[in-house]
Amino acid sequence: MIVPSEPAVEPPDDLTDPRELVLAYLDYYRAALLRKLDGMSEEDLRNSRLPSGWAPLALLKHLAFVERRWFRWGFAAEQVDPIWGEEDPDTQKWQVGDEESTEAIRALFLDECARTRKIVAGAELQEPARSGGGFNPPDHHPALIWILFHVLQEYARHVGQLDVVRELADGVTGE
Length: 175
Known about the structure:
Layout: H1 18-37, H2 42-46, H3 56-75, H4 102-121, H5 144-170
Helix pairs in contact: 1-5, 3-4, 3-5
């Protein structure tokens, strides 16, 4: 079971600074993700209710690696391994091993989010990704603001998918 998290609070509608706004929404979706996992049984966290086969705990692990890939490896050009640690090498589907605890996956997610915050705090929104990062072609250097928006939309999409999964699992709806 996921340890209860803080409620997801949408940023105020008078927040107009672009940097503060995108970072506040990213934190909002991170919190919403954890909130939607709160209270799910271990069985529901580890099993899929979808034809695609992903389970809620695997989604949490996936988003930890999204943070790692886009910010540490992609933007900061940090040489990290593994990059695709949430994927089964044979099927390329998201997976969580039996030996991986729910608490460990949650800790991985929180650690990657903290690392992202540190990277972003030391950079300007228009700053391009550093050379040697994970972008293809190698001379492609998207700006931090583009990366932030890309990751934000990925969170929004996955949190919406998790809404459906949670309702199928135990009938819980809403934030």
